[in-house]
Description:
Elements: E1 2-8, E2 11-17, E3 35-37, E4 49-53, E5 56-60, E6 69-73, E7 76-79, E8 89-92, E9 98-103, E10 108-113, E11 123-127, E12 135-141
Antiparallel strand pairs: 1-2, 3-12, 4-7, 4-9, 5-6, 5-8, 8-11, 9-10, 11-12
Amino acid sequence: MNNSSRLDxxxxxxxxxxxxxxxxxxxxxxxxxxxxxxxxxxxxxxxxCIVRAPAGTRLQSADGWRTITREPASARILASPSPELPGxxxxxxxxATALEVEDQAAGLPARxxxxxxxxxxxxxxIWSVAPDAPYISLEPWTDAPTP
Length: 147
């Protein structure tokens, strides 16, 4: 695996290349796990940060992903203190190529985008360790967990 990063027009660009050097097929799943400050500016308040979750299929599990339930999910706004975030909001088949944390008090967004990627990232995870954690993670994945 080869990873690189660079600044490009004010954006941090992360690139990763995975190469199968063997003759046998190499199944894989890949995800990025960037953490974005919430609030985006020092002195701000997290309770004014939101994520606009797209419509898609919501994946949930109550047993450590040994079994998965899937159900339609409408587009909605997730407030950063939402009790859902520590349990992860996993969405597949949303068609989203970007998600962002919006700090409404500061009037600033921070975006994670896979637009233009050679690899499809059909799964998005919106996560934070606790409702008062100083970050929200917007994670594009190439595949959903499988039991």
